[in-house]
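WARN no homologs supplied; continuing
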Amino acid sequence: MDKLTTRKIFKFWLPLAGAWLMMSLDGPFIAAIIARLVDPKFNLAAYGVAFSFALIVEAPVIMMMTASTSLVKDYNSLRKLRQYTWILNGIITLAMLILIIPKIFFFITLDLIGLPVNVAKLTHVATIILLPWPGAIGFRRFYQGVLIRNHATRRVAFGTVIRLISMASTALGLFIFTKLPGVYIGTAALSAGVTMEAMSTRIMVRKILRRIKTAPDTDAEPAEPAVPLTFQYINKFYYPLALTSMLTLGVHPLITFFIGKSQMALESLAVLPVVSSFVFLFRGVGLSFQEAAITMLGSNKENDKAIYKFAAVLGLTLASALIITAITPLSKLWFSKVSGLSAELTGLALTPLLIMGLFPASTVLISMQRAILVKAGQTSPITNATIIEVLTIISVLYISIIHLSAVGVVAAASAFLSGRLAANTYLYFKTR
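OK structure emitted
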């Protein structure tokens, strides 16, 4: 591998960052649509809960892009990991079908979470609409990893463009020509967008798949151990990654539960997805660096310093941009004019946004830390870090809401940041 320069890293990473940035627009766009329709508070709350359920169900496959970026080196590894992906997709789709069974669903939303009846009913239909979401995510992330592994990062970005166009067309069409509740329009747009992205990604990867099939082992680095990819090996490698995602995304129902017990519960449920989606515009760019780092980190350690330096500059830049936005009128402009929140909800959103100012930097850091461990085949510490993160989130939520009577969305923001910093600290010692 040639010596890496900042220019080379930037050129490789930029399409991935663009893809994540465009994907980050999903949440703000959908929230802006919902906020401009009837009963925005109830529909935004239902959207946040339904989307959380979909994220939980998709959790086992969310790291498939990381796995395929790291493991697909020849036709055998491609075939084995693809079979593994299809099995996981089947399992999570079945889980989604079980979740939407009315008795099960309303037990969770009414009895456990304590949602108002009207919000629970809206959430149920929205979750049904999101049924294609988990499987489509697993399908496209597998093939996106293959594209990244083969340095076709621009195609990943193009797939995201198709996703945005499909999502926007669906949302605007339903917005103009129907009188459906906002949460139904939003979730229909998300399902349509990710399904089209998955289909387009499969089309764009065809030539690479044919090349891998006819010329196996050409992508493997000489320094990498020649380990035949079996289901047993995949399980050993991927299980910690899947568990990491499940723990990370599985905490969302707990957050919803605690917010339901907090001060300004309904307002917090409505505001949290808007704040989270805006913060994701910044931290999503940081998440994009993980697969880039996995691909670029080689056996030649002299290249690592350039990657570390790039990650440091990226993290500081993103955090600075978010903090500046939070402390200036730009934040009010975004929440009130772009997102369409009321004056009450806009005011509520400002404090949690500022609290999460460091989140983009911590995201870049954890992406770098995870990349180092994945490249070394050591995925268990990633899971351990996530366990620490989740326990910290739950602890902060419990103390701040139950004992300090904090406003729900403020407590959630504090918990998110505290948890991530705790995970960063643990991984610092594991990657030294």
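The CA atoms of residues 48 and 133 lie 15 Å apart.
OK
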